[in-house]
Amino acid sequence: MFSNTALLQFSKEGAIYGDFKNILSNKINYRHMDKLKNCIQGKKIYITIECEEIYIKIFRIPKVSKNKIKYIISQEVNYYFNYVESIIFDYLIFKEEKEYIDIIVYCLNWNEGKFIKKFIYKCNLKKVSLLQFDILNYYKNHIKCSNYAFVFLHNTDLYFLACNKNKLVCNSININFSSKNYIKNFNDFIDKCNKINYVNTKFEKFYFCNFPYKEYIDYTNSYYNCEDLGEMCNREIILNTIKRRSLWKI
After folding, report:
1. CATH number at residue 156
2. Distance between CA atoms of 242 and 250, rounded to whole angstroms?
3. Is 82 a domain residue?
């Protein structure tokens, strides 16, 4: 099933390539185009993007058929970002009323986006996803509320995510996280959430994953009900990502 599957994981270090048997174990420099093309020739391509904070905005549009939403959102994004070539985006329906629809749009000014465009359409691109969504989707069966925060440590970076109606509405990434900065990082995240009118900071729960600093879970527990989900399994998360739909517009 996965013999012809190629995985490209983009992070601040560059790109890591791997097939299913050797998931993300063969580091390559993605700027070496010929080598990358040789690696992915004839394979189904899955791209995961790390260490990139997502810009999130809600657009209210008139009630239209769902097949027109993508065109409208594409025009809004292009206008809002002045037709920047490196913008990629995805969207979800946040709220639907009789006369209008609120669309939550996720945008990323990803420099590698325009680089990938040069050859990716010649390949079998199956999915583009961001780590934030991969993690939330993998743990969705462990989450028993709809308004919550999710904190996880991936490599050396600490992610804070806020969800409302089970949809990501705010995110913050602390690159090269140091545990001594946790309280400041936590407060900065709450302040950021408080400035966004569609984020409800009365979180029902704070979930932690892959976070070994139990004293800071206890600290957070003095403000919010916390739950530690333990360590994460990268292999299982990647498998789950492959099965899930999420193709961002590149």
Report:
1. 3.30.420.260
2. 18
3. no
